[in-house]
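Quiz preparation item.
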């Protein structure tokens, strides 16, 4: 790492004292050159500073108010580019890779402006340091909300351009020529007039002594040679050959394994355990009891799992022992009917507009609890000692993992060492540290490193779930069928109130109302309200697509209902309302044209559409379905996306495809139900996800745009469900307002 900017000691990183040259930098630059330890060039810059992006995206992740900026005159870098004497480029950023492809796309930004081959750039996890590596736009060191490329777009390119200009200046100084007569290409600086050339590795020490160039010019998009070009994932080979390290892959000397049995009832605690039979199983070495779980320690996973199965446990089930879905849904419905909502948006006079409307449309929508079901089940390896603690895990929030270590062990932050690994799926689950906290509690009672792992059953039954939501929505239509009044009341849990309390302001959870409170449609009179209703002891958390997954389903289904009431084609109806949103109209036109919208479908088949603006991107989807004997098959999905400037079209296509498959699972099959305070689902047998042979044909059309990049990891999931349920309506005439589709289309004899 770096002398002057970073001080690497005992595996930790701390901010070095600022210098006068740092404090004199303009707020628009946020750059500093320095010498790297062992020789070379290190450039510190602010990842996220000055990035273009919507404040709602920041709020939906950690609760920033959208106004976080560095203080005047204070240089606070949170990302670093190091170029060593061999010319190797290492990028250190506070972002993690969990399948979204940022460990390819972000290096593309640097490589483009630095003029180096993409293969020469490597990317490292930043160590947890809340001050040094905090993203000012997210308010923490974390990865989420489809924000990584949005906030990397300008700072990463500017950092690459600054380093390139500094290296050219160093070469020009050595050759005593005008820097304007030199140029960079493929990791070298060239002076064509004299034929001289020098590699970056030969110039880094000299460049480190120069002041940081100011106001560098970024490339015009027409000159891009890397950005915007289809590029294979840099991390694919190691994932194919098995050398990539995920949390579950950790192997340490003298490591033991802990199988967990959690209390099956939310909020319950351990009363007593009979471990007689468990201790007799070969390989079982210890039984550990904590407040709401029992861990069986074994020399290998099989011994630990067999031991866990042999336990006889009595639980204090507590107040939630009688909790059921009937009670949860009833409480939500009562809150929607009786409680006054906090106003998220008010335009015009809705009640007056309803009075003048010709037609009124009303509906109630419900969406279930959802598990994350990441392919890599929950796991965490810890080694707790008297004066230190090490944690091996894949987490989206490394600083919160360290905080958990401090809270459980009583050690100081500098005594906690986090080894962050690749994540086998995040989807918001690994924004939480409940399992890390549990592993630390177990580790305190074990003298050696211990890997705590959850079975798939434990994973599904003890997740932190996407909240159950209950929506009441109404529209008043004029004589032409246009909505002149729009009222939407959202009732459900507040994730923000727990995860980022400062974001929960005036009774509004910005995640819960996202999309619903910022529609692309022309709605002159609208009232959007939120009622917080917590589901007793059921833990809730972010889920892929966060607020837009629930908001888009409700709004886009209801827009279809309005189109039916207006006796207007659903696509034409949307077009009539999108005159003030040309980007939304653009993706709608591309998707419907590609899907051949218009001609009638064969009997039993239907075609549905959805439009969405979220995460800084615009999406339209058209889904084709077949309904037979109450079973739904999604045959084809056509997606059009305007996500601004494209960094890697290959990643965009992959993320949209993955998001669609994820969304189909949730729309058709997935739900968590609760009876007697327990989750009734256990594994993929009853928490069903889409199989490969059930996947539809997926077409992804990227709409060219000169706007700043938007997010791409989550919109594909959020836009899917209403396109499918609208297609089901087209095929059957049955409007589905509850997810998942499940058995709703079956008659009583076949259900």
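Solution:
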């Amino acid at each position: 790492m770096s002398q002057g900017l970073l001080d690497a000691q005992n595996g930790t990183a701390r901010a070095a004292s600022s210098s006068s040259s740092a404090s004199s930098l303009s707020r628009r630059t946020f750059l500093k050159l320095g010498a790297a330890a062992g020789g070379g060039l290190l450039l510190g810059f602010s990842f996220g500073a000055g990035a273009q992006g919507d404040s709602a995206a920041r709020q939906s992740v950690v609760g920033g108010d959208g106004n976080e900026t560095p203080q005047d005159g204070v240089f606070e870098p949170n990302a670093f580019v190091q170029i060593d004497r061999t010319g190797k480029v290492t990028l250190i950023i506070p972002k993690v890779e969990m399948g979204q492809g940022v460990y390819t796309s972000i290096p593309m930004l640097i490589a483009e402006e630095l003029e180096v081959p993409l293969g020469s750039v490597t990317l490292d996890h930043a160590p947890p340091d809340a001050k040094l590596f905090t993203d000012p736009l997210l308010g923490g060191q974390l990865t989420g909300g489809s924000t990584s490329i949005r906030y990397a777009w300008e700072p990463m390119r500017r950092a690459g351009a600054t380093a390139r200009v500094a290296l050219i200046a160093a070469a020009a100084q050595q050759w005593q020529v005008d820097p304007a007569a030199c140029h960079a290409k493929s990791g070298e600086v060239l002076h064509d007039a004299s034929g001289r050339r020098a590699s970056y590795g030969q110039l880094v020490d000299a460049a480190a002594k120069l002041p940081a160039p100011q106001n560098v010019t970024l490339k015009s998009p027409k000159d891009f040679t890397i950005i915007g070009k289809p590029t294979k994932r840099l991390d694919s080979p190691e994932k194919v050959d098995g050398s990539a390290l995920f949390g579950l892959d950790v192997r340490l000397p003298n490591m033991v394994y802990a199988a967990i049995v959690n209390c099956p009832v939310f909020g319950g605690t351990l009363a007593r355990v009979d471990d007689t039979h468990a201790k007799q199983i070969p390989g079982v070495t210890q039984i550990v009891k904590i407040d709401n779980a029992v861990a069986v320690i074994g020399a290998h996973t099989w011994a630990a799992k067999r031991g866990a199965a042999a336990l006889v446990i009595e639980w204090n089930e507590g107040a939630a022992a009688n909790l059921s879905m009937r009670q949860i849904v009833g409480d939500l419905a009562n809150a929607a009917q009786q409680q006054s909502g906090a106003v998220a948006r008010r335009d015009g006079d809705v009640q007056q507009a309803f009075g003048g409307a010709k037609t009124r449309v009303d509906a109630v929508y419900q969406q279930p609890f959802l598990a994350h079901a990441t392919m890599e089940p929950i796991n965490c390896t810890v080694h707790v000692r008297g004066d230190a603690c090490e944690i091996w895990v894949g987490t989206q929030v490394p600083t919160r993992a360290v905080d958990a270590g401090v809270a459980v062990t009583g050690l100081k932050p500098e005594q906690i060492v986090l080894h962050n690994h690749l994540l086998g799926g995040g989807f918001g689950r690994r924004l939480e540290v409940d399992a890390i906290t549990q592993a630390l509690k177990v580790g305190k009672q074990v003298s050696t490193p211990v890997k705590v792992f959850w079975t798939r059953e434990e994973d599904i039954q003890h997740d932190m779930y996407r909240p159950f939501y209950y929506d009441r929505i109404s529209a008043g239509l004029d004589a032409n069928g246009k909505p002149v009044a729009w009222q939407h009341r959202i009732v459900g849990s507040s994730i923000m109130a727990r995860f980022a309390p400062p974001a929960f302001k005036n009774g509004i959870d910005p995640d819960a109302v996202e999309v619903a409170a910022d529609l692309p449609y022309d709605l002159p009179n609208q009232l959007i309200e939120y009622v917080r209703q917590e589901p007793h002891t059921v833990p809730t958390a972010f889920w892929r697509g966060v607020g837009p997954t629930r908001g888009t389903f409700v709004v886009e289904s209801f827009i279809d209902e309005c189109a039916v009431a207006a006796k207007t084609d659903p696509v034409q109806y949307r077009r009539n309302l999108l005159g003030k949103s040309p980007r939304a109209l653009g993706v709608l036109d591309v998707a419907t044209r590609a899907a051949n919208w218009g001609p009638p479908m064969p009997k039993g088949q239907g075609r549905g559409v959805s439009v969405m603006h979220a995460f800084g991107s615009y999406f339209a989807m058209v889904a084709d379905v077949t309904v037979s004997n109450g079973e739904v098959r999604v045959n084809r999905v056509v997606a059009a996306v305007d996500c601004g400037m494209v960094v890697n079209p290959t990643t965009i296509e992959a993320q949209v495809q993955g998001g669609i498959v994820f969304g189909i699972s949730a729309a058709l099959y997935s739900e968590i139900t609760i009876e007697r305070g327990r989750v009734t689902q256990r594994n993929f047998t009853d928490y069903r996800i889409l199989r490969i042979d059930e996947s539809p044909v997926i077409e992804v059309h990227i709409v060219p745009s000169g706007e700043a990049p938007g997010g791409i990891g989550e919109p594909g999931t959020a836009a899917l469900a209403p396109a499918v349920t609208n297609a089901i309506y087209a095929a059957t005439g049955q409007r589905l307002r509850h997810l998942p589709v499940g058995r709703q289309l079956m008659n009583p004899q076949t259900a």
